[in-house]
Design goal:
By secondary structure, the chain is mostly helical. Helices cover 72% and strands 0% of the residues.
Length: 205
């Protein structure tokens, strides 16, 4: 019974997390506007600052934590457990999104940190930040579980495949390539001519 429940959580992580966010974020925004500061400008500004901050955090997390590895056994095991296994099995849908229990614990930790540092403004900042994470999770899942479209959006598939199959030390951004450009981890320009072909091959596997 417990095993089936854990399997259910694993298989429906994104939907469960989406359900939690669907209830949590509107409440936090409503509470801030009605009981903290009835300013649409403040609410919108802080929300988008939080959303933008996620893209930076995503880049730092992916580059320096998920890809942290050295010659020690513990570091190699850590890397494989948190991210290396995803690179080894990129099409495994069970490994595309963080499990719900760790997600809730980590989200709760960030909520307390933002609340402690920013006070009531942390309610809105956290809302934007967590929506940023949700967008990242949905984008990442889509890039691995859905075939690339035949339009301009195909760039996202091609860009992420470069990270997986050509340059694991580049193209860390999933939500946006902005921080790769700023921190000079954007893939070599010569790759642009081969992205489409590589994307098609990998998504056929």
């Amino acid at each position: 019974m417990i095993t089936r429940f854990l399997i259910f959580l694993q298989e429906h992580t994104l939907l469960l997390f989406l359900g939690c966010i669907y209830r949590c974020v509107p409440f936090l925004l409503w509470y801030f506007y009605n009981y903290v500061e009835p300013s649409a400008i403040a609410l919108i500004s802080i929300f988008f600052i939080g959303l933008f901050s996620w893209t930076f955090f995503e880049y730092i997390l992916h580059r320096y934590v998920f890809h942290f590895v050295n010659d020690t056994k513990w570091a190699q095991r850590f890397h494989y457990f948190v991210h290396g296994v995803h690179h080894e099995y990129p099409k495994d849908k069970q490994r595309l999104v963080m499990p719900p229990i760790p997600s809730i614990i980590i989200a709760g930790t960030f909520f307390m940190i933002f609340r402690l540092i920013m006070g009531s403004y942390g309610l809105v900042f956290f809302s934007g930040f967590i929506i940023g994470y949700l967008c990242y999770a949905m984008i990442h899942y889509t890039l691995h579980a859905v075939r690339p479209p035949k339009n301009a959006l195909k760039f996202a598939w091609e860009y992420h495949n470069i990270h997986h199959f050509r340059h694991p030390d580049k193209a860390f951004g999933v939500s946006s390539p902005l921080w790769d450009i700023i921190f000079r981890t954007y893939p070599p320009k010569k790759e642009s001519g081969t992205r489409s072909q590589e994307s098609g091959k990998k998504n056929d596997q």
